[in-house]
User: What shape does this take?
Amino acid sequence: MTAPTIVLVHGAFADAASFAPVTRILLDQGFTVRVPAVPNRSLLGDSAYIRSYVEQLDGPVLLAGHSYGGAVITVAGAADNVVGLVYISGYALDEGESLGQLQGGFPDSDLAANLVYTPFPLEGAEPGTDVSVKVDAFPDVFAHGVDRADAEVLAAGQRPLAAVAFSEAAPVAAWKTKPGWGIVSAADHTINPDVERFGYQRAGLKSVIEIDAPHLVMRSHPAEVAKVIADAANELA
Assistant: This one.
């Protein structure tokens, strides 16, 4: 058997470029890699989009999700051709649980005080609300540990998350039927690392490693992140 296609799923306040260093490493190692743009409009909508994307790929797929992307792969990973899940500083939601509920159990982080709420129009409905990180705070809160110049570029181009995504409950938890691996960012200033530890332990992931790294661990420690993903892909081959 060949290794599965690796689909990297970015999180809130980021885009596919957040995975660029890891993508390069995995491509150089001969893996087939895809990094779709997540709409960041709602957990249910984003998960449906990624699931549809995955189901149109030939052969088995390994999903790797960062941050909010972990919640997305938890739901989208129910697709039949998904054979494994990798959580990177991510939310491993349980069935019926929302981001807000899981995060609320471990409130310590620097993120809440540095969020910006901006209305956006919705056709035929009340305006929605976009959530983003204050541009000036982004390098220290979201990209702590990343080269300052790179962090400023990421801050300028961050992809907001619609507020509704925080309250929607996951209709399914793919980790109950698919093997999983996890990375805890021990120096995370965005998500309390205990959120990651709790979710991974509850999910019974096959392997969990801790890296003394910030939330954007795939930018600060790309080799370590790529190794976890590659090892999982090779184990599933």
Q: What stands out?
A: The CA atoms of residues 184 and 210 lie 5 Å apart. The domain at 5-104+164-236 is CATH 3.40.50.1820 (Rossmann fold). The mean pLDDT is 96.
